[in-house]
Amino acid sequence: MSPDRRTALITGASSGIGAAFVRRLAVDHDVLVLVARDETRLRQWEQRVPATVEVLAADLATPEGRAAVEARVAQGVDTLVNNAGLGLSGPFVGHDIETLQHQLDVNVTSVLRLTHAALPPMIARGSGAVINVSSVAGFFGSRSAGYGASKAWVTTFSEGLAIALNGTGVRVQALCPGFVRTEFHERAGMDVGSRTGPLWLDADRVVSDSLADLARGRVVSVPSLTYKILVGVIDLMPRRVTGAVLRRFDRRDR
Ligand SMILES: NC(=O)c1ccc[n+]([C@@H]2O[C@H](COP(=O)([O-])OP(=O)(O)OC[C@H]3O[C@@H](n4cnc5c(N)ncnc54)[C@H](OP(=O)(O)O)[C@@H]3O)[C@@H](O)[C@H]2O)c1
């Protein structure tokens, strides 16, 4: 981390929300360290953005992959975006335990470990930002169980960190989008139809809301008025009522 070479490390930089972070952070960072498994897709950024691109192909579901990224993060970055993540369609019991463990390792373990590696140099310098991509799915339970729980962890973890880092100059955010047009649903095997309507957001808009909220010091960022209202209503409802409503609307595949 050098004062004249601003560096951002973005996980899941090969598509979707991560790609939108690459486009936006290339504007005010000199070096972008891009992490995902697909090295070919990551290398395409070398010709597309004005910043210097470092490609770090790694599988965040594995201890070796995480260790390689942790080592790079520990050298010092100004901005860490923990974005890589995945969903699974269908009910919890329909997935084998290795698939569920894989999801937990990418969605939670990598966020824990990369944040832990990133913070000491940030705190020493008195500046830096960690953006953890969570989801509105973390505000309530759903049939897939593991995904929503992983995102609840990411949001609560970020809120706790924001308290712990108060006064250090290091900012933390949990970015909680609703439906975003990316490869996420297709990869998860979810049939989501035409992906139009007010509930569907563009990745670039999600990222611009995230960075505006980061500048304002907002720890939990929920892009779009529709989702702010939805989350506000869920927050006001007793948990047993939210659970009953969700159970009523989730009657598929019984
Ligand atoms: N799209 C939505 O509706 C939505 C809503 C709320 C939250 N989110 C969250 O947003 C984040 C980004 O998702 P997205 O919507 O942009 O989906 P996406 O288009 O499927 O992108 C996922 C990214 O994560 C990377 N990734 C997946 N598994 C990985 C692994 N084992 N190791 C390293 N990288 C891995 C993928 O790259 P490789 O395949 O090349 O490894 C890809 O770059 C996720 O955390 C997701 O939970 C998405």
Strand and helix map with partners:
Blueprint: E1 7-11, H1 16-25, E2 31-36, H2 39-43, H3 45-48, E3 52-57, H4 63-74, E4 79-82, H5 97-125, E5 128-133, H6 146-164, E6 170-175, E7 179-180, H7 184-188, E8 200-201, H8 203-216, E9 220-221, H9 225-236, H10 239-249
Parallel strand pairs: 1-2, 1-4, 2-3, 4-5, 5-6, 6-9, 7-8
Helix pairs in contact: 1-8, 4-5, 5-6
The structure holds NADP nicotinamide-adenine-dinucleotide phosphate.
NADP nicotinamide-adenine-dinucleotide phosphate is lined by residues 11-18, 36-38, 41, 59-61, 83-86, 106, 133, 135, 177, 179-180, 182-184, 187.
Q: How does this structure look, described?
A:
The relative contact order is 0.13. Strand 1 (7-11), helix 1 (16-25) and strand 2 (31-36) form a beta-alpha-beta unit. The strands form two sheets. A seven-stranded parallel sheet has the order 3-2-1-4-5-6-9, sandwiched between helices. It has a two-stranded parallel ribbon with strand order 7-8. It has a single domain, classed as NAD(P)-binding Rossmann-like Domain (Rossmann fold). The protein has helices spanning 16-25, 39-43, 45-48, 63-74, 97-125, 146-164, 184-188, 203-216, 225-236, 239-249; strands at residues 7-11, 31-36, 52-57, 79-82, 128-133, 170-175, 179-180, 200-201, 220-221. The chain is globular and about 55 Å long. Helices cover 48% and strands 15% of the residues. It is α/β, with parallel strands linked by helices. The structure holds NADP nicotinamide-adenine-dinucleotide phosphate. NADP nicotinamide-adenine-dinucleotide phosphate binds next to helix 1, strand 7 and helix 7.
